[in-house]
Design goal:
TIM Barrel; alpha/beta; binds zinc ion; A_deaminase_dom; hydrolase; single chain; 9-stranded parallel beta sheet; globular; 14% strand
Length: 370
């Protein structure tokens, strides 16, 4: 028993030390519980919410699905002012960097909120301000020939230099939005492409909205050359799954409820999949960890990367997702390393950054797998 615990501890530590690439992380869903509690307390004091009603669900580990939805609602209430958006962005980046995520794509839905004087643009400015105020780690926001990009990546473990993390932003179109609002988001992504915004995501409640509503905006993004990722098959909406596969975005999130024909099509298209194990099991997209479609896609050598989706909401971390793959499907350290390294090929950032990431994995590979 002791030996088993020791083995688990060693493996968990190894998964933290492993450099990782996070491609599917929603800003709001990645907020620290301690911050959420503090913000809820402030709102409670102002009389905007009843703090006692939400306290327990915030402090709970391993939430039920209805509790997750309650937290989702709370995120929307909590993130309506610029300072809060800046703060949570800063903390989310720090948290990912501390567990050795070396490249992070954060996705977020730019919001208009007239009452708070917030526009989609000012919301995004608050996010970018958050990235720039990170001090605990070094954040590299731009491609091109910025000098910061030339500095060597800090070595793993015991190094007193700051950890370094590349961060890029994806703008999410929420399924509740109109065609015009979705088009606004795509145009904003284009305007902000020199500020770290590199892609578009389609997300939100999967039973809300119609594919046809967002299609013009997604087509527009495609014409502009902006990479796209789409939440696909969270529910068994046959028409939409077919339409999404036909659209052939650069990446897909989740892909839970596909039928045989759709799996076949996905595999033939080789569209990389963002796998979110804990999220899928907790929200019912997969029946259990053991029966998660990761195994089938992995065995088929389909391109995929492990992701958290909402690390705060689902009480997980990217290191934990790697650990779950090892403990559930029996992957070796070498196989886990390969999985992390392969994700580099699916990032939306440019070739120069990809090269830097490839070099990093080459450098640490031997040390971690022998
Ligand atoms: Zn998601």
């Amino acid at each position: 028993m002791e030996a088993e615990k020791e083995k688990e501890k060693e493996m968990r530590e190894w998964c933290v030390a492993l450099p990782k690439v996070e491609l599917h992380a929603h800003l709001n869903g990645s907020v620290r519980d301690s911050t959420l509690l503090e913000l809820a307390k402030q709102l409670g004091d102002k009389g905007d919410i009843v703090f006692e009603d939400v306290k327990d669900v915030i402090m709970k580990n391993g939430r039920s699905l209805p509790e997750c939805f309650r937290l989702f609602e709370l995120y929307h209430i909590l993130t309506t002012d610029h300072d809060t958006v800046t703060r949570i962005t800063k903390e989310v980046v720090e948290d990912f960097a501390m567990e050795n995520v070396v490249y992070l794509e954060i996705r977020t839905t730019p919001k208009n909120n007239e009452a708070k004087g917030m526009t989609k643009r000012s919301y995004m400015n608050a996010v970018i301000k958050g990235l720039k105020t990170v001090e605990a780690v070094e954040v590299v926001l731009f491609d091109s020939n910025s000098r910061a990009d030339k500095t060597p990546m800090s070595e793993l473990g015991g190094d007193t230099r700051k950890k370094k993390i590349y961060v890029r932003l994806l703008l999410s179109i929420d399924r509740r939005e109109t065609t015009l609002a979705a088009l606004d988001t795509v145009n904003l992504a284009m305007e902000m492409k020199d500020q770290g915004v590199i892609g578009i995501d389609l997300s939100g409640n999967p039973v809300v909205g119609e594919w046809e509503t967002y299609l013009p905006a997604l087509e527009h993004a495609k014409e502009l050359g902006i990479p796209i990722t789409i939440h696909c098959g969270e529910v068994a909406n046959r028409n939409e799954i077919r339409a999404v596969l036909d659209f052939c975005p650069q990446r897909l999130g989740h892909v839970c409820c596909l039928n045989d024909e759709e799996w076949k099509k996905l595999k033939s298209l080789m569209i990389p999949v963002e796998i979110c194990l804990t999220s899928n099991v907790m929200t019912g997209g997969a029946p259990s960890l053991e029966l998660h479609h990761f195994a089938d896609l992995y065995n088929a050598k389909h391109p995929l990367s492990l992701c958290t989706d909402d690390s705060g909401l689902f009480s997980t971390s990217l290191s934990n997702e790697y650990y779950l793959v090892a403990s559930t499907f029996g992957l070796s350290k070498a196989e886990l390393f390969q999985l992390a390294q392969d994700a580099v090929e699916f990032v939306f950032a440019g070739d120069e950054l990809k090269r830097s990431l490839r070099e990093l994995f080459e450098r640490v590979g031997k040390e971690l797998t022998t």
